Amino acid sequence: MESFVHLRKGKTPKRVHADLDGLKDDELGRGGFVGRTANMYRRNDPTAYRTVGPLRPTDVLSSELKPADASDAQGGPLLMFSNADSQVLLSRRSEAMPFFARYVDGDLLLFVHKGSGLLETEFGPLRYRDGDWVYIPKACTFRQVPDTENTWLMIQATDDFRVPPAGTLGRHFPFDPAQVTIPEPSPIDDDGRDEYEVRLYHEGGPTSLFYQHHPLDVEGWRGDNFPFTFNIEDYTVITSESVHLPPTVHLFMQATGVYVMNFLPKPAESVPGTERTPWYHRNVDYDEIAFFHAGSLYGIPMPPGLISHAPQGVHHGAPEKARERARRKFDEYDRVDWSVIAIDTRRRLTPSAEILANDLGQHQK
Ligand SMILES: [Fe+2]
């Protein structure tokens, strides 16, 4: 239950996230963006710091990372970030899996950043393409057959991904589950080989099971636990003319301690004085990962495949220069064309050695 008390002290603009008059808009809020909160109006850019110690934002170009599956068909994805609730991995496979995969520690949610292909699953085949989310239930067996080199952002939860509870917008917005693509059963015949490897990915693994028959041999299925794809083109973006809405309105799927959001092209806020750039914050209760899929920030191209990690409690936000430019160009742009995938986690994420080795080091200068 929220309090009626909402104080206003000192110099504050009348509207939230607007009419800053040179002040820096900084939020100290609980529970992501839905709990008790304070908007603080500062003199200086709160992201202008250098860090000493392990807690710092990292920025990595995923094209610089070398997942084993990029150069070896037998290889697997690269672990980028992990905590007790989740793992965030990168895959860049260009050759068909010579084995079958099964992630036995939790549900998988994959974002197809680049490329297309076929996913053979126990439930039947699923085609995928750029901008698809692919959901694979925990311990479901599948095989990836890419058309060309693929780049996947992979999120593994330790329990099941679910549609967020219906809020004030109802059950079908911004994500309408009726728009998912669900596979039809299509059992695959044995091809004459001696054994079929099903590789189990798990903590302390992998483990391989060898069958003498094709593991994707399901003639039919029923129930409510199945893989699907959903393209971000079908996501219904929520917007407002007079305020930049908090990221929580773009929630797509969630598991315990893991929240996945889509920030997609939309009309820009149009009421003069409205800040179009997300305000500074230190997301007190959540680590944040942003994956830049495509687009630009009011004409400034964003590097596709850039991954940013902001630990909870550490300030982050677009640079002041970008904010000034967005204000200056207010009348030139009436749309935002960014496509960013965001992952928020309740527990702290640990970046892997590969992430730390490839950090662009923007906060260590
Ligand atoms: Fe953030």
UniProtKB/TrEMBL annotation:
Binding residues annotated for homogentisate, in chain numbering: 316
Note the Pfam families from the entry: HgmA_N
Q: Which GO terms describe its biological process?
A: L-phenylalanine catabolic process; tyrosine metabolic process
Example GO molecular function: homogentisate 1,2-dioxygenase activity
Q: Which UniProt keywords apply?
A: Dioxygenase, Iron, Metal-binding, Oxidoreductase
| Residues where Fe cation binds | 281, 287, 316
* Cofactor(s) the protein needs: Fe cation
- Which intervals hold domain Homogentisate 1,2-dioxygenase N-terminal? 104-231
**Xref: InterPro entries:** HgmA_N, Homogentis_dOase, RmlC_Cupin_sf
Q: Which residues form the active site?
A: 244 (proton acceptor)
Q: Which GO terms describe its cellular component?
A: cytoplasm
This protein is called Homogentisate 1,2-dioxygenase N-terminal domain-containing protein
Q: Which organism is it from?
A: Mycobacterium aquaticum
